[in-house]
Automatic annotation (TrEMBL):
Domain CS: 51-156
Protein name per Swiss-Prot or TrEMBL: Hsp20/alpha crystallin family protein
PANTHER family: HEAT-SHOCK PROTEIN 20 FAMILY MEMBER
Lineage: superkingdom: Bacteria
InterPro entries tied to this protein: A-crystallin/Hsp20_dom, CS_dom, HSP20-like_chaperone, Small_HSP
Family under the similarity heading: Belongs to the small heat shock protein (HSP20) family.
Stretches assigned to the SHSP domain: 47-158
């Protein structure tokens, strides 16, 4: 049972008969269709289908951040990691295709594609030049040293 009433672009046009589960299903379908136009985003919700958000463990030490991301089936050459100040983005894609051997008659074949995408912001800047990445057994490990801040400058108030 849905106890929270959400604002909807169709609220003024909604008949009271739509309070049944089927009515809510239809209403949600229209909300999903109209939400990209109302929210300013031009990407529909279904555009993100097929993208997996890898699970993360983030640890902070005095000198660095240690990040572990689960990305099963990914090869190291398919992983892209970008770092810009505090923002870290991890991307990867896996493709699995079946091979057809001579003399085989394939009746049915499934191919699998999975994209991983995760972006997150750390509490302080990262030293991009000293950052390291390692992939082993489907776990991407990032070692992200903190950028050493300069000394504070004191100003004289005039």
């Amino acid at each position: 049972m849905n106890l929270v009433r959400r604002p909807t672009p169709l609220g003024a046009y909604r008949a009271r008969a739509l309070e049944d589960p089927f009515g809510r299903l239809v209403e949600n379908m229209f909300e999903d269709m109209l939400a990209p136009m109302a929210g300013g985003s031009m990407m529909p919700q279904w555009a993100n289908e097929g993208i997996t958000t890898p699970r993360l463990n983030v640890k902070e030490t005095e000198k660095s951040f240690e990040v572990e991301a689960e990305m099963p089936g990914v090869k190291k050459e398919d992983v892209k990691v970008s770092i810009e100040n505090q923002r870290v983005t991890v991307e990867a894609e896996t493709k699995t295709e079946s091979e057809q051997r001579e003399g085989e008659n394939i009746i049915y074949s499934e191919r699998s594609t999975r994209k991983y995408l995760r972006a997150f912001t750390l509490p302080s800047d990262v030293d991009e030049a000293a950052a390291q990445a390692h992939l082993e057994n489907g776990v991407l490990t990032l070692s992200l040293p903190k950028k050493q801040g300069g000394s504070a400058t004191k100003l004289t108030v005039q």
